[in-house]
Amino acid sequence: MQALELLLTAIALAMDAFAVAIATGVALRCATLRQTLRLAWHFGLFQALMPITGWLLGATVRPWVEAWAHWVAFALLAYIGAKMVAEALRDHEDGRPTCDPTRGMTLVMLSVATSIDALAVGLSLSVLGIPVWWPALVIGAVALGFTALGMRLGRTMARARRLGQLAEVLGGVVLVGIGVKILADHGALPFF
User: Fold this and answer.
1) Do 21 and 38 touch, CB atoms closer than 8 A?
2) Is residue 24's pLDDT more than 60?
3) Count of CB atoms within 10 A of residue 4's CB?
């Protein structure tokens, strides 16, 4: 795999993580450095581990993974997006969300949902006989960087006090939209 091809693949894979990071930054309104690093680390780690997992699984389970991975990603993103919208529409006395998407099972679900495509890349590398270690490292590092940048951008967007709730609702809708786009990209929706 050529360097430019690998970098473009890593950037393409990081776009879901970037969009989710923006939505998370908006939802948190005032994301701390710790929250940013936690989300960036987990997204980068999962983006690096998924190609390795896909590569190790190889061609044996490829048809099953390709048939269902987009549905898993959609379900996770739709659930978290709907939860964000509901959270945004509730009144918060202190102005802060009660749910922190950078912690617990929400963090794990977001990490898995944004890295499912990387699993397919690992499967493809395996079939092509390409070693996975360097691509996995690059994919993880790019996802980490884009996630940190997305959190920063989301935090900046959320600072507009009047737009905070609207931005949080929009962030949840974006997550659901990403899930629908994943389904459309995989031909799972007959009307797209």
Assistant:
1) no
2) yes
3) 8
pLDDT in tens, 55-96: 888 767 666 766 777 787 777 778 777 877 777 677 554 555
Do the beta carbons of residue 101 and residue 110 sit within 8 Å? yes
Q: What does the block give as tokens for 29? A: 């309104």
Take residue 106 and report the two structure tokens written for it.
């929400």
Burial class of residue 64, CB neighbours in 10 A (0-12, 13-18, 19+): exposed
Query: Hey, CA dihedral for 113, 147, 151, 185, is it positive or negative?
Result: negative
pLDDT, tens only, 100-141: 888 888 899 889 988 888 887 888 788 777 899 999 999 999
* Amino acid letter, residue 13: L
Residue 164: phi and psi, rounded to 5, are -55, -55
User: At which residue do the structure tokens 């600072």 appear?
Assistant: 159
Amino acid at 94: D
